[in-house]
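Protein in question passed on here:
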Amino acid sequence: MLDRPIAFCVNLQENRLAGTKNVLGEPLVACSMEPVTGFYRDGCCNTGREDVGSHTVCAVMTAEFLEFSKGRGNDLSTPLPEYGFAGLKDGDRWCLCAPRWQEALEAGKAPRVVLTATHEGALEHCALGDLKRHAIDLS
């Protein structure tokens, strides 16, 4: 069960008034505002032409995944104060690149996923069944 208020996302980058969809075909909800996440730093796993990494999977960070990501050259845990980035820790929600989540899945290191906050664009890189098996928001 989710313990956070629900906020719906709008893809302003695409100038669409209608909300974007998650992998379940429902309106996309926010992933995290603390820390603020998303390619556009709007709290949502929105994507657009500029987002070549497809930051579309809302995942709950684990120490194991953060170490895996660091080993792949993407250190998400070390603070970078010059960019206003405090570093991620176990339990933080973050919009991951869908290909990196898939890579972590294949290595047995994939973090849990919030399906309602995972953009439908993630399905270009990840199978819905795999995402569902790692979901925290399915009953």
Notes: Strands lie at 55-60, 93-97, 112-113. The longest strand covers residues 55-60. The first helix runs from residue 63 to 71. The radius of gyration is 14 Å.
